[in-house]
Amino acid sequence: MATHVRGAARRAQLLDQLSALFLAEGFAHLTLDELATRLRCSKSTLYGLAESKEQLVRAAAIHFFRGATDQVEGRLAGEAGARDRIRTYLEAVGEQLRPASRRFMDDVAANATVREVYEVNTAFAARRVQELITEGVRSGEFRDVHAAFVAEVASSTMVRIQRRQVSAATGLDDAQAYGELAALLTHGLTP
User: Fold this and answer.
1) pTM for the full model?
2) Number of neighbouring beta carbons within 10 Å of residue 177
3) Domain of 85?
4) Percent of the chain having pLDDT more than 70?
5) Angle at 159 between CA 157 and CA 163, to 5 degrees
6) Which has the closest alpha carbon to 150: 96, 191, 188?
7) Deepest of 30, 60, 63, 149, by most Cβ within 10 A of its Cβ?
8) Could you say which DSSP state residue 98 is in?
9) Do 191 and 82 contact (CB within 8 A), yes or no?
10) How many domains does the chain have?
11) Quick one: three-class SS letters along 127-148?
């Protein structure tokens, strides 16, 4: 049992390190040999995490987004009131994406496997925003808006952020764009 726990802890540690490395430097240009050297482990250790570099990058992306989701939801748990919850949620999403370098985002955009992981997480976040808007309308804190429509607008913006279109059009990085989306929604929904 103790060996299994140590193995799981080592796996999580390696995925944390891979995520941090990929966020800072991107991943397309890195080889498995370079990754093993940088992480001070063997290639066989990396192959224990995934069968190929592509799957290793995917595993690190999934690990990152799971951790980010936990962090965002943790921040949200401490908030009361729909306005504060939406603002906190979107700002927390932005904070989680802040370490993502331009090179990482460009690599994500160019890699279908990792882009899909990002898109799934963006869709989850959009559904969560819709839930928060619906809660605010029900409680009377927000104007009586069509929550699904407002969430669709937010979702479209979130997808544009993920696809780097907002950055190209405005110069904002993803974290800044999420902050602006939070401000737009929280001010636009209140009476």
Assistant:
1) 0.85
2) 25
3) 2-189
4) 97
5) 115
6) 188
7) 60
8) T
9) no
10) 1
11) HHHHHHHHHHHHHCCCCCCCHH
